[in-house]
């Protein structure tokens, strides 16, 4: 009885997790699990935005995030940001971002991110932005990026699926 | 004295003179350009996004903050501006006349108009400054010992840049920096100390 109750609770929580308003989704393609893609709301006039997520490779072969798209963006790149002392440095990862077998990689503010460039319209908090992610091995998957508040750190999106 | 000997003496003399000169250049410690906190800051004069001109001279008597950034910056610039917006609000009336200057390191794309629009998303006490070209940008960066560098990307370019917020006191002297990694409480305490200093 208590096991059934537990199962019911778990099912209910799972339902909340997947269907609850405002929560970003998880995706799977091939051996890759993609947790909760999100982006930050942009200031007025901004032409760029960062997209974030955690990608876990459950397979035996390395894969690579090599591209993608986002509906409001004219261009999409994969970047790495890092701080060297007080200097912010940004690089485009021209060979993409490797996800080693059995590993997860988290794209987060201050580190790896997908870069939406040439934005046609600002990203507003609460919106969902349609897009794609392209992996070298697993292929292309359609995703939605949930737009969080400006300055959001995506703490709830930081864990692997 | 034969000719060979003269040549030999001349050659050795030349080597001695060159060696001495090299030693002087290499070993003589360069005098420090200036000491301690006076090294950061200095004269500048830039157009603000509202059409006015802001200079180190015109800011005398008022503490201020200054940040190097650009609008094609997905993370550190909007986050820094959001944080300082929150700090200014937390300080209340104390910071009523305080100004934060956002110097664009990308004047090729960041026009006064775009900066005005962009900064409209943050506290109105944040004012955009637009260097008229490379010389003005290099000048203010040098004055604040800030770094900026254009980096090519597949679709264009981005900018590396110093991302601290400089705090300058009412005399135009360097007071300290604000950093995103600091807790809001510590940042605001620093701003209060700056504003209390006359």
In short:
The complex is a heterodimer of chains A (161) and B (198). Chain A is mainly β and 161 residues long.
Keywords:
A: 161 residues, 1 helix, 50% strand, globular, B: 198 residues, 5 helices, 36% helix
Could you walk me through the main structural features you see in this protein, from its secondary elements to its overall organization?
The complex is a heterodimer of chains A (161) and B (198). Chain A has 161 residues and is mainly beta. In chain A, strands 1, 2, 3, 4, 5, 6, 7, 8, 9, 10 and 11 form an eleven-stranded mixed β-sheet that branches. Chain A is globular. The C terminus of chain A is likely disordered. With 198 residues, chain B is of the alpha+beta class. Helices cover 36% and strands 23% of the residues of chain B. In chain B, strands 2-1-5-4-3-8-9 form a seven-stranded mixed β-sheet, with helices on both faces. Chain B has a two-stranded antiparallel sheet with strand order 6-7. In chain B, β1 and β2 form a beta hairpin. Chains A and B meet through β5, β6 and β9 of A and α2, α3 and β7 of B. β6 of chain A pairs antiparallel with β7 of chain B.
Overall shape of chain A: it is: globular
**How are helices and strands ordered from N to C of chain B?**
HEEEHEHEHEEEEH
- The amount of beta strand of chain A, in percent, is over 45%
- Roughly what fraction of the amino acids of chain B lie in strands? 15-25%
- Total helices of chain B: the number is 5
Which residues of chain A sit in consecutive blocks of at least 5 with pLDDT less than 50? 12-22, 157-161
Mean pLDDT of chain B: 89
How far apart are the first and last residues' alpha carbons of chain B, in Å? 76 Å
**What is the oligomeric state here?**
heterodimer
* Total strands of chain B: 9
Provide the gyration radius of chain B in Å.
24 Å
Structural class of chain A: mainly beta
Helix content of chain A: 10-25%
Radius of gyration of chain A: 17 Å
SSE order and pairing:
The complex is a heterodimer of chains A (161) and B (198).
Chain A lengths: L1 H18 L6 E4 L2 E9 L8 E9 L5 E8 L2 E12 L2 E6 L4 E3 L4 E4 L4 E8 L8 E8 L3 E10 L13
Parallel strand pairs in A: 2-11
Antiparallel strand pairs in A: 1-2, 2-3, 3-8, 3-9, 4-7, 4-10, 5-6, 5-9, 10-11
Chain B lengths: L2 H25 L17 E4 L4 E3 L8 E6 L6 H16 L7 E6 L7 H8 L6 E5 L3 H10 L4 E6 L2 E7 L2 E4 L5 E5 L5 H13 L2
Parallel strand pairs in B: 3-4, 4-5
Antiparallel strand pairs in B: 1-2, 1-5, 3-8, 6-7, 8-9
Helix pairs in contact in B: 2-5
């Amino acid at each position: 009885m208590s096991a059934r109750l537990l199962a019911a609770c778990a099912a209910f929580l799972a339902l909340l997790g997947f269907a609850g308003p405002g929560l970003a989704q998880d995706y799977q393609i091939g051996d890759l699990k993609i947790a909760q893609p999100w982006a930050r709301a942009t200031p007025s006039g901004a032409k760029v935005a960062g997209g974030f997520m955690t990608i876990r490779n459950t397979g035996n072969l390395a894969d690579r995030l090599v591209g993608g798209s986002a509906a409001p963006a004219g261009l999409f790149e994969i970047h790495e940001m890092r701080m060297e002392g007080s200097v912010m440095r940004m690089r485009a990862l021209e060979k993409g971002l490797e996800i080693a077998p059995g590993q997860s990689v988290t794209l987060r503010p201050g580190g790896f991110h997908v870069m939406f460039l040439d934005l046609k319209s600002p990203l507003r908090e609460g919106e969902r932005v349609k897009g794609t992610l392209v992996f070298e091995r697993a292929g292309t998957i359609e995703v939605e990026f949930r737009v969080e508040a400006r300055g959001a750190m995506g703490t709830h999106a930081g864990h692997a699926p | 004295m034969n000719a060979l000997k003269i040549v030999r003496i001349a050659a050795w003399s030349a080597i001695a003179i060159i060696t001495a000169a090299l030693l002087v250049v290499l070993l003589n410690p360069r005098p420090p350009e200036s000491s301690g906190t006076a090294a950061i800051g200095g004269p500048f004069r830039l157009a603000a996004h509202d059409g006015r001109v802001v200079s180190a001279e015109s800011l005398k008597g008022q503490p201020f903050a200054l940040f190097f950034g650009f609008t094609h910056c997905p993370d550190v610039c909007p986050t820094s501006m959001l944080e300082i917006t929150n700090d200014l609000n937390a300080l209340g009336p104390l910071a009523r006349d305080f100004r934060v200057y956002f110097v664009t390191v990308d004047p090729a794309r960041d026009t006064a108009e775009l900066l005005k629009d962009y900064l409209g998303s943050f506290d109105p006490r944040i004012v955009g400054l637009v260097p008229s070209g490379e010389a003005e940008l290099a000048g203010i960066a040098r004055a604040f010992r800030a770094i900026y560098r254009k980096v090519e990307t597949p679709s264009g370019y981005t900018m590396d840049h110093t991302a601290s917020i400089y705090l300058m006191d009412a005399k135009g002297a360097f007071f300290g920096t604000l950093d995103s990694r600091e807790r809001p409480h510590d940042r605001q305490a620093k701003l209060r100390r700056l504003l209390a200093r006359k």
